[in-house]
Amino acid sequence: MKQxxxxxxxxxxxxxxxxxxxxxxxxxxxxxxxxxxxxxxxPSRTLEQLARKVEAQAS
Length: 59
What we know:
Radius of gyration: 15 Å
Strand content: under 5%
Helix content: over 70%
Largest sheet: none
Structural class: mainly alpha
Distance between the termini: 15 Å
Number of helices: 2
């Protein structure tokens, strides 16, 4: 049971980091938008923080 939970947490963190890489790629490929309120990297930083939080709680 604990091993299954650890595996699920590992899969979740991999998924979060994959989503982060997709966001980074889309931000890199998008045209610059001078009206953007937040930097494009903000959502990916949030995903990385969430991945770290999940890993910390699993430990």
